[in-house]
Amino acid sequence: MMSVSAQLVEEYFASGTLTGLPDKHFIGGSWVAPAQGGKIPTFDPGTGRAFHDFAAGTAEDVAQAVAVAKSAQRDWGRAKALDRGAILYRAAMLLRQEAARFAVVESLDSGKPLQEAEGDVAGAARTFEYYAGAADKMQGDTFPLGADYLGYSINEPVGVTAHIIPWNFPISTAARGIAPALAAGCTAIAKPAETTPLTMLMLAELLHRAGLPAGVCNAVTGTGQAAGAPLVSHPDVRHVTFTGSVPTGTGVMQAVAPNVTSLVLELGGKSPLIVLGDADLDQAVDGVIGAIYENAGQICSAGSRLIVDRRVHGALVERVAERARGLQIGHGLHRAMLGPLNSDAHLAKVAGFVEDARSRGLSIATGGATTTDPATGAGWFHEPTVIDAVPALDPIVQQEIFGPVLAVQVAEDEDHALDLANGTEFGLVAGIYTRDFDAAHRMARDIDAGQIYINEYFAGGIEVPFGGNRKSGFGREKGLVALQSYTRVKSVAARIASHG
Ligand code: NAD
After folding, report:
1. CA geometry: angle at 274 spanning 287 and 116, to 5°?
2. What does pTM read for this prediction?
């Protein structure tokens, strides 16, 4: 018998779409048509063809979602933590049961290879499970004021929260913001990216089926201007978690300022993967390939700069370029090793960076051109590209390209590697490959980034806090620390009257 996943893939290639895809907002526990009635097409990046239309949300839809979230807030915030945890746990179970459909839709909407989308859905289920377990462990403190006083604190939910989600990891980003918010007793309104709206809508509906009361989690689709902007600036929204680009993120900072709304910003990166002269090169090659070509490089924490010790530079670049050339390009639903970029506009942007590098005379060790799915001649693809020996101030080193383009920087020694690593305005992650324990931890200490990976790029899980420094943003998601964004401490100090 065919698997659910294979049946869905067959249905898509036979009909050019999938039945039952959501096309309305999910507000107050039901599907709600957009007030203005507008629709936006969503495209399959692997073919470049539209396969579905979704709701073009406006400020009216946002106002409705915020109003229902606000009225659901009191009961949800006062519910027993164990009941909140039980619902999140059921959501994790349901997501695992329905993982095949979520992964096919995610792959189709984003373009990413199906096996990567399956990993993202499994990760999202794990995220709900993790915060389900955390819900009833958010304890307050007592304060030692002496026998005549009682001092204690309560972790209150902040209230209505907004979640602005990018297109590169739609369901993962949604889960990592919404799960801790719901665990903490907040309500949520999510605005997914305009090129990947579908799995967020499906997730909001699944949470409702898992037992989440109506209005506690809502999803409004639409463009950043028409739906995102009125959401983040709404005076009843008490916290915004924004994941996206630096320019949009700084605009959101300004938009929340008049309401003094709290904010987590998860922005871009230009993260270094450092290979010292004594590193295990097999391990390093595997690390580099995953770091820059997974999701076709469209990862905020991609290892987009390879900083390599001069002693192993030639050998490493040759091996990386050879592996890059071997990555089979194709449609995400065919489980290709390298999928398309998410939109034609984004492909043009990535290709522009590479063309400019070529015109400056930089050495392109492999790749360097746009391409198509070899099976169909369609789609928005870019060859896996390695640009060698790039000067430290070149735009290829300084700017986030967000595509399958690796910039190689040559380091003379450990100190030089550290200078290069800290030489951009970003500070999201860094990877270090070495057998020298002391060197690894010296660098971990001295690199300005939110997280460090040693001898395995992307090591970690939902347990490990994640976030950026400098232009990569502020605040932390994942781990127990993420719950702090969704709670505020109320302290109570009481005088106990003497008896009689
Ligand atoms: P983007 O900034 O263009 O859009 C992100 C989201 O913001 C979308 O949902 C968009 O509709 C919305 N938006 C746009 N204008 C808005 C406005 N005025 N008000 C409110 N919302 C608005 O980013 P993108 O191109 O979708 O995503 C790619 C970027 O995201 C990259 O820079 C990447 O590094 C970053 N990113 C960061 C992380 C992280 O955790 N640090 C994770 C994933 C992606």
Report:
1. 25
2. 0.97
